[in-house]
Design brief:
heterodimer, A: alpha/beta, Rossmann fold, 9-stranded mixed β-sheet, B: alpha/beta, 7-stranded parallel β-sheet, 5-stranded parallel β-sheet
Chain lengths: 261, 395
Amino acid sequence: MNIVVCLKQVPGTTEVKIDPKTNTLIRQGIKNIVNPFDTYALEEGVRLKERLGGKVTALSMGPTQAIEMLRDAISVGADDAVLLSDAAFAGSDTWATAYTLGKAVEKIKTCDLVICGRQTIDGDTGQVGPELAEMLDVPFISYVSKVEEIANGILRVRRMVEDGYETIEATPPAVITVVKEINTPRLPSLRGMTKAKSAQIPTWTAQDIGIEKDRAGLAGSATQVVKVFFPQREHHAEMLKGDPETQVNALVEKLREAKLV
Amino acid sequence: MMGIQIDIEKCTGCETCVPVCPFGLIDIIDDKARIKVEGCNLCGACKDACAYEAIEIEQVLEQAPASDEYRGVWVFAEQRHGEIKGVAYELLSKGRELADTLKTELCAVCIGHNIKDVAGMGAYGADKIYLIDDPALAIQIEDPYVTELARLIREYKPEIVLAGATPFGRSFFPRVAARLHTGLTADCTGLDIDTEKRLLLQTRPTFGGNIMATIICLVKRPQMATVRPRTFKRSSSDTNHKAQIIKVDFNKESVTSKTRLLDFVADISEKVKLEDADIIVSGGRGLGKLENFQLIRDLAAALGAAVGSSRPPVDEGWISYPHQVGQTGKTVCPKLYFAIGISGAVQHLAGMQTADCIIAVNDDPDAPIFQVATYGIVGDLFKIVPMLTERLKKG
């Protein structure tokens, strides 16, 4: 069972604040982290490998600093890692990203299963997984919460849908995206950390994976960002003043007036 | 050279651009800004911040203009178990505006079996409805939807195709876009038309909702976008507006499903229908501990409201994930929304700021929640909430 897990390094955004004076992002103290949803993808890949044998390759596209994240992936059980990094990849939208990842998966060759997180916490699109499946022309199953079986040329999973769950079967190779309900990611082992420290992590460029310049990065993207701005909020609430009782009375009156209660 | 460049002559090394990069890719080396371009998405935040015009971004290659064969605005009208989803009507209402601006037609596409009230979409602005109805589509498996929607788009060539950012939409729609070799923008909160260039301006929150980005699909067609439920308001229905229903045969032969649905088990424990609630009472970090969340439930019970939450209580395990409102939870648009002990991080605001009336209770007068609230109370929620509950119970 050869598995590729896609990982993305993202800014740890949950504590991000906006400087109210300059209306810019306060980045100080924000560390880059592995996209949390991807940690479940990696853990599932490692668990499947432990059960069935084979190999897990961690794959990422990004700046060279993402090497550290890939090292961490090895410390929790990935056998190999590959970083796709090239100035030509700058400005990639989800379509160009999926194309680039697809070319790398093809170069890795023997791959039975690609596992991605359901979405990233920075872009939040959730589009790269399904688009990657189309690039590779293989079956796709999203929101997987349990891999029930992968054997004898059959992949059977449980996937979450809005009003319950489904059991779905497909013939591998396939791409799946996983939800956090699927497992609890492990912490690095001492052996894993030792292995990670000395691991050789190759960096592949556009040329290495046979991507023509006009298919990578901005040139290969269908969409482009034309403007970024910080959400402006001018409005301010009508404040209800006084002691708690006065405040509550004023509120109830307002709500009754508006026939909201 | 396409992309982003820093003019070393103009750069003063002032560091203004360093903190504005959402991805932290700018360093000052030898008193000049350097960008690690490998991770850059050319968003332009640094360019806007630079007072010396030292940052140049070449956004667009000389490219052939988009084909003008493509005309019309389409909405994928998702159904589940034969019921058309609310988001379809919201998208039709928005789609009508876009189609009017473009002076073109608005069409709905509906795929399934025995779908209720298909013609009713006419009242929300659809001029035509393409309907594929076949018993084989009674189970909702994605592969035939991908194949059939892609086939219809290739045949009729709409310039814009919208779908709801529901779990199903977010899963199958990207595959349609990839198959058509075109772009897709997820979770748009704003859709407008650049009339001069006939382009769809797609605005979405990114980077955890801290930044808004406007995205275009310049050359490829159609321009595709998903929109979360409850983002746009449903227009009032006009029963005089009728749609022409065009039945399209299900092309069984061309659809070889790569996945097989073996079983569906409905989750009956999930009773949280936040999206449909008229009143929602949400609690946040300010409640402090699990037991205190009861205050929220009591107030909700007095109002006949649904119980919501910001992210911290879910992370702390005070309440389950289906209750979470915000960027990574649900988007809601009730008539009345109570934000109790919620400071109002952008991620939360992204999920509730379109509510008709928002009441915020918080002990911090500077909490961002007061910027979106209709009425604000600064005070101790442990005094105010029980008092409010009692008042409402008395009637």
